Amino acid sequence: MPDLKLLALDTEDLAVVSAHVQDAIVRVGDMGYARADRRFALLMNRFAWEAGTGRGKGERHRTALHFDGVQSVATAGIDTNSRDGSLELLAITFTETDGPSGIVELNFAGGGTVRLTVECLEARLQDLGAAWAATARPVHQLDGTP
User: Structural domain tally of the chain?
Assistant: First the structure.
């Protein structure tokens, strides 16, 4: 399967990116804001949902994601001093505030959030190399189920 390369310039594009990064594992130390470049970037181990459901446990890819035109970054529920801590990315959303500017939210399991104030939505995702076998397939418990 070829490496994934996506560009998001609107909410529909971002929904596609969000679906591809659901259940990605992100090390806290692999996220950063380059204020001078107005870029927020992160590296992740992305679960390859597009690879199909087959019998195996699936595969993961090392993947880079960055957002341009970032004016500010805020975090909640994440210990940014725990550089080796890991987070599970659940979804990425965009809310327009004063078109085309808005808020990008990266939501993590356990309630952690990274909030980016952006001039406009511009995100780029790219796989960085060969895939490897996942140790487990992510499973989600639905509300109200035991």
Answer: 1
In a domain, 138, yes or no: no
CA dihedral 134, 141, 115, 131 (to 10 degrees): 10
- Say if 144 falls within a structural domain: no
Q: Domain span at residue 73?
A: 5-133
Specify the 3-state DSSP secondary structure of 29. Answer: helix
Lowest-confidence segment of 61-65, 127-131, 141-145 by average pLDDT: 141-145
Instruction: Annotate 29-64 with b (16+ C-beta within 10 A) or e (fewer).
Output: ebbebeeeeebbbbbbbbbbeeeeeeeeebbbbebe
Whether 30 and 84 have beta carbons less than 8 Å apart is answered as: no
pLDDT tens-digit readout, 69-124? 999 999 999 999 999 999 999 999 999 999 899 999 999 999 999 999 999 999 99
Please indicate, yes or no, if residue 141 is contained in any of the structural domains.
Answer: no
